């Protein structure tokens, strides 16, 4: 028996309680007022009456499953449930409710739900997405919570926004996933049929179409064979008609709709108009032409008027399924076409001669045809008439005159732009081969003259320059303007193009004739030798492999004598010879069969390259003489610029950077001399101590004594040969003998 609710008869639950505050659920986040935490207790730190706190921990123990977030672990994973719901129809007597089928999709990545209703034909209701994808709350009194995977199963009812959905089945992936989650999956149920749809189906089955209807289903054929075309190469022999000739055709059979298109192959200069199509795309009848048909005589359907005009003015028409009296036409199909068949193209007999690979594979797969022997149908090509050009008339260049013979509209000759871009000078690469030459003459004045021949690789042009010599009686300067030079012994007025000097025609020891002047090439600069050795496949005179084969063929019969000759020229057994002695030995053992350039290539390949102090002094003397001549004294500014570019502050710069700096300050030193100086001051990594370099070339601070000019006797035999560049002084002959005759008996 409970006590009455009167003063003094009830217990005070707040006795001894000190906290009566109300928990704060609202706060500010990013200066926006919002619900911060709804899990806080009620008054005084105690939950309110009837309040249920959500669990803070998962039902699964820690360590199970993947550590990846749900939107990564369950990406593109969706549970699919088959469901239905009853929709009441209060305004109709024929039906009280409807059964509406739907699909419920549960997205595992974010626990969102989407309900989709399949569309029915002529339903009269907006169907499709019934509930858009979002998180759906549970029905009251748990509307503060949302549906999770544990709320779904088969043969259960779920309430989505006060509408009851009955889940009766799901797909196999959903069943497996629910079992892995520990859910006992119920057996699938059945979906009741909609009574209204039953009655409607019976009515539709009893109804006949209002008009005669016969369906021709061509969609499947179109979807299977769209873009598939059979190609046949045909021949139409029209020789019997006046001015007729055999004509080549190409037949296209479209498998998507059994239509045929014919194109004519019109040869060049045939005199025929270039029409786009010989036969437009359409179905091709086998027996055509057959005459003119009345309108409506050819139709896909046959209609019978049953009552005629007995029933008023309206007749009763039915579709004639038997097609009595219908005009039947036979059209060409794919099985009617094969190689060797003669088809009728509107009265023209066309022979199928060949087909393409796709057509062969199609007939081999579908019809089992294996014989695709083509029928020769093309006439042999006419003999090619050799085009002859008139001789050169002497005006302009030969290429320009030839362009006027190639077409009615003369065009300027095309230059090799790719070669120009590859071989044009850029940066520190000049792509110019320079050679020292003299005139091949007995004149006492001209035989002492020296010339520098420059060959430009970008456009195969040549220029000749004569250095000025004191008291020679010759002015010097430009001897020959830059341009292409013809080889001697060619007719001026001829039809064939003339031959011009190429880079392969220039080598040390070669005799070249430039406009009647015969030059002998005596030497080349370091860049020319290096370039020719790097492109040995283009320059056989610098190809060490070809030269060694040639030398081996010459010296193989007398290998022992050659070894004795080298041993006798080296009595101290130093295993090296100076270049002058080495050249004399090579000229003796080859009897002049090797050119000077080939001997230089061998000497450079087996040379001992030593950087001596004498060479450095010689180069510094040459450089300071030129700098002193032009009063060049801006070395402090150049060192300051090097310090500015030296970001690492290590006192070193690349050789290319120092050379570019010298060019930018217009340092009056030739490029070859500057390269040689930089090579003397460079280390193994081509780094240069710029302070040491500019202090060495400073003729004001560190002046080098002037060098003594080399005196050469004015003798023709002496000038037949000019020493190679300074780095090649001595040659190691033992490796040469080892490459030629092996390692035995080389001492």
TrEMBL record:
Pfam entry (one): DM10_dom
Chain ranges of the DM10 domain: 75-182, 226-367, 429-536
Keyword list, A-Z: Cell projection, Cilium, Cytoplasm, Cytoskeleton, Flagellum, Repeat
PROSITE patterns given in the database record: DM10
Record flagged with keyword Iron-sulfur: no
A GO BP entry: flagellated sperm motility
Cellular localisation: Cytoplasm, Cytoskeleton, Flagellum axoneme
SUPFAM superfamilies documented for this protein: EF-hand
GO cellular component: axonemal A tubule inner sheath; ciliary basal body; sperm flagellum
Gene3D superfamilies: 2.30.29.170, EF-hand
InterPro entries named among the record's database cross-references: DM10_dom, EF-hand-dom_pair, EFHC1/EFHC2/EFHB
Subunit structure and binding partners: Microtubule inner protein component of sperm flagellar doublet microtubules.
Biological role: Microtubule inner protein (MIP) part of the dynein-decorated doublet microtubules (DMTs) in cilia axoneme, which is required for motile cilia beating.
Record-given protein name: EF-hand domain-containing family member C2
Gene designation: EFHC2
């Amino acid at each position: 028996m409970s006590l009455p609710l009167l003063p003094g008869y009830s217990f005070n639950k707040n006795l001894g309680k000190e906290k009566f505050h109300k928990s704060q659920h609202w706060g500010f986040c990013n200066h926006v007022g919002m619900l911060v935490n709804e899990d806080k207790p009620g008054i005084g730190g105690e939950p309110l009456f009837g309040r249920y706190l959500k669990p803070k921990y998962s039902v699964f123990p820690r360590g199970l499953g993947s550590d990846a977030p749900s939107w990564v672990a369950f990406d593109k994973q969706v549970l699919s449930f088959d469901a239905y719901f009853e929709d009441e129809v209060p305004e109709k007597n024929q039906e009280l409710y409807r059964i509406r089928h739907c699909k419920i999709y549960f997205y595992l990545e974010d626990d969102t739900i989407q309900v989709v209703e399949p569309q029915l034909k002529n339903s009269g209701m907006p169907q499709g997405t019934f509930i858009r994808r979002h998180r759906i709350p549970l029905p009251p009194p748990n509307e503060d919570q949302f549906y999770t995977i544990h709320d779904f199963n088969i043969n259960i009812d779920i309430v989505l926004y006060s509408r009851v959905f009955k889940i009766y089945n799901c797909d196999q992936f959903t069943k497996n996933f629910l079992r892995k989650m520990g859910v006992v999956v119920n057996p699938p149920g059945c979906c009741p049929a909609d009574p209204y749809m039953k009655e409607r189906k019976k009515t539709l089955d009893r109804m006949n179409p209002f008009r005669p209807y016969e369906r021709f289903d061509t969609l499947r054929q179109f979807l299977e064979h769209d873009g598939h075309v059979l190609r046949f190469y045909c021949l139409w022999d029209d020789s019997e008609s006046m001015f007729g000739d055999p004509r080549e055709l190409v037949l296209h059979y479209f498998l998507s709709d059994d239509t045929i298109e014919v194109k004519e192959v019109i040869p060049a200069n045939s005199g025929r108009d270039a029409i786009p199509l010989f036969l437009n795309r359409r179905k091709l009848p086998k027996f055509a032409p057959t005459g003119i048909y009345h309108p409506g005589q050819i139709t896909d359907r046959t209609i019978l008027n049953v009552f005629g005009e007995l029933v008023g003015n309206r007749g009763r028409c039915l579709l004639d399924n038997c097609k009595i009296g219908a005009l039947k036409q036979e059209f060409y199909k794919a099985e009617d076409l094969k190689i060797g068949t003669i088809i009728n193209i509107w009265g023209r007999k066309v022979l199928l001669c060949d087909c393409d690979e796709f057509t062969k594979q199609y007939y081999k797969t579908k019809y089992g045809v294996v014989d695709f022997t083509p029928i020769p149908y093309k006439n042999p090509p006419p003999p090619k008439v050799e085009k002859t050009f008139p001789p050169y008339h002497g005006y302009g260049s030969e290429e320009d005159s030839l362009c006027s013979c190639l077409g009615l509209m003369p065009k300027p000759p095309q230059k090799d732009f790719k070669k120009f871009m590859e071989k044009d000078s850029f940066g520190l690469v000049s792509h110019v081969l320079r050679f020292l030459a003299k005139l091949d003459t007995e004149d006492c004045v001209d035989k002492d003259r020296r010339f520098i021949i420059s060959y430009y690789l970008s456009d195969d042009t040549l220029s000749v320059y004569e250095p000025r010599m004191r008291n020679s009686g010759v002015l010097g300067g430009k001897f020959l303007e830059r341009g292409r030079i013809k080889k001697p012994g060619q007719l001026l007025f001829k039809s064939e193009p003339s031959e011009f000097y190429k880079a392969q025609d220039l080598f040390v020891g070669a005799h070249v004739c430039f406009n009647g002047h015969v030059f002998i090439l005596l030497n080349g600069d370091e860049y020319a030798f290096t370039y020719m050795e790097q492109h040995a496949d283009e320059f056989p005179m610098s190809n060490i492999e070809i030269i060694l084969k040639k030398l081996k063929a010459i010296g193989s019969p007398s290998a022992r004598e050659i070894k004795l000759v080298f041993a006798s020229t080296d009595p101290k057994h130093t295993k090296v010879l100076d270049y002058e002695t080495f050249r004399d030995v090579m000229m003796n053992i080859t009897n002049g069969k090797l050119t000077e350039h080939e001997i230089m290539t061998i000497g450079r390949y087996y040379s001992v390259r030593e950087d001596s102090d004498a060479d450095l002094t010689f180069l510094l003397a040459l450089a300071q003489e030129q700098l002193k001549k032009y009063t060049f004294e801006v070395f402090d500014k150049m060192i300051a610029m090097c310090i500015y570019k030296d970001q690492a502050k290590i006192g070193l710069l690349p050789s290319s950077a120092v050379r570019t700096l010298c060019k930018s300050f217009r340092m009056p030193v030739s490029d070859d001399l500057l390269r040689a100086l930089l090579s003397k001051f460079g280390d193994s990594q081509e780094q240069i101590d710029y302070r040491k370099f500019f202090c060495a070339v400073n003729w004001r601070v560190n002046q080098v004594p002037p060098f003594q000019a080399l005196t050469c006797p004015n003798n023709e035999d002496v000038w037949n040969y000019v020493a190679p560049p300074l780095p090649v002084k001595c040659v190691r002959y033992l490796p040469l003998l080892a490459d030629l005759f092996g390692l035995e008996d080389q001492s």
